[in-house]
Fold these 3 entries.
Entry 1:
Amino acid sequence: MASSCCWLPPILIVFGISGASMLATIEEYRWVMMIVTFGFLGTAFYFTYRPRKGQVAQEDCCTPTISGGRRRFNMMTMNKIMLWGVTAMAVVFLFFPQIVTAMLTPDAGEFTTEMNRTTLSIEGMTCPG
């Protein structure tokens, strides 16, 4: 949600929904949503990787193993994989406005002295994308 001010309007436009620019008001709350997101991720990492009370280390008797000493793929392993995947997605979406700006902004070497340059100032537009 923290970067929805930048990615949601183009998606809505693709589906023919007009007035998507109203979603730019969400950008005002970007920092709050980022803090909440990282708070949830931090809590998820804490509950996923904290040591369990009264349990021996994971490598000992409590971890199911397959013959040959390999650990079996269990639900906790799946939880860890999903947590890291969600964290990676959150970081990608967090930097989405900067990624779009870098992709859409032409290099400085593409401008020549023969070109005319016009700069438009738009009030209230803070999203770099």
Note: The chain has a mean pLDDT of 74.
Entry 2:
Amino acid sequence: MKQLGLFTDAAPRPLPHLEADARLAARLPAWIRPGPSTWTFPGWEGIVFPAGVTKDELLDRGLGWAARYPLFRTVGIDRSYYAPLDEAELRRYAAELPPGFRCLMKAWSAVTTFLDPRSGTANPRFFDADAFERAVLRPAARAFQEHLGPIVLQLAPIAPRDLPHPEAFAADLDRFLGALPTALEYAVELRNPELLTSAYLAVLGRHRAAHVLSLWERMPRVGRQLAIPGVLAAPFVVCRLSIPPGQRYEEQREAFAPFDRIVAPDEGTRADVAALARACADQGKKPLYIVVNNKVEGSSPLTVRALVARMVAALD
């Protein structure tokens, strides 16, 4: 893949809103890194991608265009959740990114899934630090170090009947984080609110890992998580906006596709993110990563634009 400017000869028509977006981005402090949870959406043509972009161009150049969109300072890498990315894939990604652009890469789901989804029995790879380091961390450190932000350990949802005791879960997480290389940053995303306990937060604090303040269908809203004592104890903060509580992924996708406009503005979430930015500022301008899914309001880049405007106003 080629290293790209904002637009290449294949995309001669610049987007008319880029100057305004660049002016807005210039008002956002450098320690705040907003961006999309992934990037391959044809509906973003004319917003993030050049007019007339083809599917093949999007697959080949989409990451580079997204990384150079003025309002994006991070990008989520979701593919790594389903299978580890090898060094060759990571080098291809790195070749598309500008210097210092850091991504939020998800950890391989094999080490963050409590039960084997096929058998329903205990997953032998759950919190397996050796497997995680061998399959994920070493390739990432060798091929993607400059672009590696916090690695997101997104736990798969656990059915109530299978849920471990919160204290036992915290102890297992403690052992897992304690066995990982300390040179990298880690952020844990829960999908069961029952596990969001003081014991869990204490474990994160011991290992300088972050709790992901998530917007997800079965978790408390970001503002409620922000109010929990100690939730911002890590040296950095990660916020992932995926889907509003009470909604369902497939229904949101059908309602919002092709993700080229805001369908359902979520003023509560916008206010929560502005409050989060203010809290990070009050804690010494703590680095804040925010990634946004299309399923939040209808179009991730347009939600990012609205969030940046709200955070700029909150920090002025």
Note: Confidence is low (pLDDT under 50) at residues 1-12.
Entry 3:
Amino acid sequence: MDIIHTSSDFLSWKKNNAGTLGFVPTLGALHKGHFSLVHSSKKICNLTVVSIFLNPTQFAAHEDLDSYPNTLEEDIKHLQDLQVDALFLPTKEHMYNEVDAVNVPSSDLFNRLEGASRPHFFHGVTTIVAKLFNVILPSHTFFGEKDAQQLCIIKEMIKNMQYPITLISCPTARDSNGLALSSRNQYLVKKDRQLASIIYTSLMHIKEALQQGQSNVVLLKAQFINMVHEVPGMKVDYISIASKNSLEDVNTIKSEEVLISTAVYFNNVRLIDNFTYLSSAI
């Protein structure tokens, strides 16, 4: 695996490596969820490139940029074991001062769900992802469904900016107890990771209620909050039942695909999860 630090060096590397190129952008602190994206890329593409860049502009002042897990040595070893072709590992100075600026169109999607709690977040994400696309020039890119809103926004950005890139969404990787895998899970001790599985259990309670014909959105949300709040230290930031396409909250469940998504604080650790549900008319 080649480790590349600058856009000019990557351009030189790419000239010597032909074929379809799958790209997996990450913040580092890699886990099985990231590795599943790599596996998907290797099945489809001739080449697979992973980037590790802890993007400061997608963290607010009160968030965990300074304490975000740093496992670079382990990350590199895992990527080598997975036979990734190249790791793009730029510095903050290079990404912001040397890679050409981009103008990503804003979107109403930025302000919903995660955006309501983290208004800075998607401006930071899309700026860096667009810059990375401009450096890597992939044929395919791979994103996890755990970050469902991000997936929608990147899909929209690819369309609006006319990138010739195929976006592949990959299923959420989970612990054996259902907890969605996340780099932030490293903040939790084993007992807390077990307790945090209540998030998935409570989401599945909503799914079962929908399958049984329940359509009262207010009641479904209240039941979710009550279940999660039974665990000491847990507080729901939001629970949303929204149109999968527009991300606008729905008041009644109709015959459409909906995204049920949540963010939950477990003490100071913020965890997200979701599932999609396609209902028949109720």
Note: The CA atoms of residues 190 and 196 lie 10 Å apart.
